[in-house]
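Follow-up to my earlier ticket, as requested here are the two runs.
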Amino acid sequence: MKKITSFTIDSSPVKGGGGFRAYTVKGEPRSAFSMLIVNNAGNFYNFPENTVVSEEEGIVTPAGSFSSTPVRLSTKTIGNSGVYNGVIDFPAASDDKYTIVLQAETYLNTKFDENLSLNAVYHAAEITQFADTTVTFAVASTGSSGTYTANPPATNHVSSGPSTSVTNKKFAQPISFSKTVALGSSQFIIARQPVINDFYFTTTKDTFSAGSGKILELKDVSGLSLGMAVSGTGIAANSTITDIKLGYKDENKSVATKAVYTIPKDIDLVDGVQSIIDSKGGTITLSEDTTSQAVDRTITFKGFGNGGSRDFNNTMFTVKNFNLTIAPVVTTTDAAVSSSATIPITSTDGIKAVDTVIMSGIGVVGTPHVDAVSAGVNVTSSAAQTIEDGQTVTFTGSSRSATITADIEIEKYGKDDITLTLELDNILTVG
């Protein structure tokens, strides 16, 4: 009998958007085989090459797809070269797993080499497909969310790409980040210009044990990093992570001068197959004492910037040309003033009494700042002015509208989705 001697294919994970995978079957000339591909749902690949193309009848090669209809590759015979080359067109999909099975066509006097299979069926490969991951850039205010007209105040910027579970290559995916935020009341001034660490993300972990002090035992410490902010019941304000260790302190093996940590074992179940793995549990040290802890208490962790997202799930990004501007407040006088510091205006919305808020306009002398605001009535200037009724005056330095712009590049899409939120409270002072 003729022998099929090998099957090769790139079995690395397929990206969520799908892709082509070339394969090679080697064997003795005139050996014959067929193939089927089944996914996790029990559906079968359609093998587009089975379709006989007829332009006259409007029959074209279909795209690769899966359905419940059992389909296998039409019998292929290896030529004198001893090599058959084919291509599989994996369609776009969420997480999936594909099993490739070859069959030696015994009726055509073919069998597998003993190193492959002792019968007519050979489980040739398994290929996993991971959904593309999404990086979302948002803005929000933690302390003044009710003052903004919306929180987040604008549509998020969303970008998707191959997860690092598929590829570890770096990208340079550009995002033109632009957000205009507005207050429904009060006013804000610029606290400072934004930086990359003003972007944050959050994740939660459950406690493993009860206790107090700075030591916190968690069921899972994966993705945590030094400097993350920590909050939750029993957690002191302004707490951060100062140390992370895998495993839990073994009191029987530890001594005063040296703590010994033991990593427990867990059972991992993948596709019905159990395996023993190291636990993801571990021990963190906080910057502040906790008042009390309980088992199974959920704790929130906040990470910052590219360093935090990289350690968390391998998301990497850069930010250039980060800029914050606030719109000037433009209004009119509603009465004439003569040598007076009290300036009646039609609206005081967005104007703050501070020496960095400057008034300008026709008739305004010098660069007076605002010393006081009588809401909806007038402002008090740092210098007396003479201005006509109905004159346009402009106030810069405070506002109810601000715009944040940046050029962002995503270098890596992490192994799962992440939302990176720009903390407005760091860059805008409300009230």
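Run two:
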Amino acid sequence: MEEKHKIDIALFRYSVIHDFVSGIKLDHGEKERLLKEKCDRKWLIPHSDKTSVSRGTIQRWIKLYQKTGNNLESLYPRTRKDLGKHRSLDEETCLGLIRLREEMPDVSVPFIIEAIKKRDVVPQNTYLPLSTVYRFFHQHNLMRKHTMVKDRRKFEAEMPNDIWQSDVMHGPKLIAGDKTRKTYLIAFIDDHSRLIPYGQFYTSENVLSFMHAFEQALLRRGLPRKLYVDNGSAYRSRQLMHTAACLGIALIRAKPYSPEGKGKIERVFKTIRSQFIPGFTGKSLEDINQAFERWLTDEYHARKHSSTGQSPISRFIDNIECIRSTPQNLRDHFRKVARRRVNKDRSVILDRILYEAPVKLIGKQVELLYHEDERDSVEIRYKNKSYGMLVQIDIHVNCRVKRDKNNNIAISSKNIAPESGQIWGVS
């Protein structure tokens, strides 16, 4: 399996278990409720046709993650020990499963498995994998689908920064540079206080714009425990998933075509369209961002909210002691991660730029961490250990380099003999 696929799967698994490993204490009842909720829901699982995750699987992922000191690599998929062997159910077991399913069409598959063992249809020590039974029921059209009325309930986070919602609003056409361009407001709202941690108009709603807005929001208001977003491409980026996982932020995506899940941010956008946009008289991107920041500070954050009875800023700071502060190296968490193999000549290529890696990493699959706008500062890592910053290769200098028997280079500005193992001088 490719490294990229392994990372996708590991990030998905973290998104499933984040409630149990984020450091928030949960009582037994809360843990059981969360487990049931996650087992019952439908998931979009990377590189798999499956849509559900079993209780045992979730518990196994939690143990693996905690056992390795919260190492994301512990959630990488592993090769099956019985790969190549056919796993199937015998005829007696199949008939027993069918009979029980017909008797109890509305019960869960784990309940069916327990029931078949209790009735002595199969020996007590018989291993019945949940995935195998699910697959058997699907193949025989025994998974009943029921139309249910959705139970929608009004909710509010208990504390500030428990949950942030984020979305994009289409803004007016403005002058950006030397062109008139469409604008997009990327904003966040704190579910508890209705405070807007950050909002800015951009000329694009891509990953780069969203990550900039996200970083600014964290710098100003601290770390949320959960971030609730939709299914747009910017929110599905590997960079966002990696950043959120490293900062201990649970990334939750709204169900497709369910805008009611983001009701609070949608309500704020309605307020912005009716109260801010009509009064804006500027013409450029810079004008609208300056005006929007003033409007947030002077009006929106200072005005009493109709739902809470408090101003957003007052409600936010009432429990400010509960807010997680941002780490000093926050910007490092917003670096992109690229995976490359170091060539035999020590070179590594990143976006057509040639870098030189340490000798000991030749042939190794390494991670390159960098900012989009800072290609002079590219960190190289191997197995979670940093090997410092890469240096761009000057191929003209390299053609004059001769190494000694220990592979060392000594740089000199003097004319030196070729056999010295130093950079050759130029007469």
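The only thing I checked on run two: The longest helix spans residues 3-21. Let me know what else you need.
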